[in-house]
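User: Please fill in residues for this 279-position structure.
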């Protein structure tokens, strides 16, 4: 009787724990999703991860196989992925793509399956093929006068020496360049207005610079006219890239971009011919 009650109670406790776990997961599922890092924050984190890799290189020997644990305060794993990419770019290091826990379970399971003695079973953890394990926390970024300040607290544990070889907080400041700020200002203008600005600029360019056509006529050489038309076409394409970004590619791929180039060249040729006929 008592044995049956203990069995019933143990299963009831187990079922309650499983139920509580799934209830908690349902709560997590229904809660608002974590905020995605902004493009500026991602660039700042890349700079921080690059500096972290540079500092770690002074403590982690070449040829090391590195496992990176999920960084705390990184609910979407985006900062962890940036750190992995920066470490993988360091010559001589091999960064494990899977999580440290997955690698541990995989290597321990394989070691247990291949074990031929009790000693191999007891020390299966030595078969985990990771030389250094890196963990840490991504601190909340701060913005002051357009400058982003990011910080990443990292720990590096050497599994061969059985000790921490790195413990530091990497802090970086990042500010977008004027080119990036200019692109964002242009992108804030509605696309139809950008298209109109580009179209008007391309149409009036040969006419407001008609002196260039007059100058080319005085040379009486075909190659001068070709260079002038090519220059107008290049200016049109540069303006298209500056105002429209990759929109011409979105309109239908490189063939549409090629068609835009031909259209600009033909119009510039026609305009120069009309201006030349008036001279």
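Assistant: Residues filled in for all 279 positions:
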């Amino acid at each position: 009787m008592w044995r049956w009650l203990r069995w019933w109670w143990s299963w009831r406790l187990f079922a309650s724990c499983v139920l509580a776990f799934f209830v908690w997961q349902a709560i997590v599922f229904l809660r608002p999703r974590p905020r995605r890092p902004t493009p500026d924050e991602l660039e700042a984190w890349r700079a921080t991860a690059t500096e972290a890799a540079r500092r770690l290189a002074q403590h982690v020997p070449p040829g090391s196989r590195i496992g990176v644990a999920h960084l705390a305060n990184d609910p979407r794993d985006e900062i962890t992925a940036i750190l992995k990419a920066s470490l993988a770019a360091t010559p001589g290091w091999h960064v494990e793509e899977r999580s440290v826990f997955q690698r541990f379970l995989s290597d321990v399971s394989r070691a247990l399956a291949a074990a031929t003695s009790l000693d191999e079973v007891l020390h299966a953890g030595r078969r985990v093929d990771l030389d250094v394990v890196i963990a840490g926390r991504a601190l909340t970024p701060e913005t002051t006068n357009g400058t982003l300040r990011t910080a990443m607290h990292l720990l590096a544990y050497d599994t061969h020496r059985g000790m921490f070889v790195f413990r530091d907080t990497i802090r970086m400041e990042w500010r977008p360049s004027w080119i990036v700020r200019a692109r964002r200002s242009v992108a804030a203008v509605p696309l139809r207005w950008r298209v109109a600005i580009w179209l008007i600029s391309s149409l009036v360019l040969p006419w407001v610079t008609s002196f260039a056509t007059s100058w080319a006529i005085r040379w009486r050489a075909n190659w001068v006219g070709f260079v002038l038309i090519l220059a107008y076409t290049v200016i049109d394409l540069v303006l298209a890239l500056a105002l429209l970004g990759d929109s011409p590619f979105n309109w239908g791929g490189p063939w549409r971009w090629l068609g835009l180039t031909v259209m600009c060249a033909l119009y510039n040729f026609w305009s120069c011919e009309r201006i030349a006929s008036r001279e």
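For context: The CA atoms of residues 210 and 275 lie 7 Å apart.
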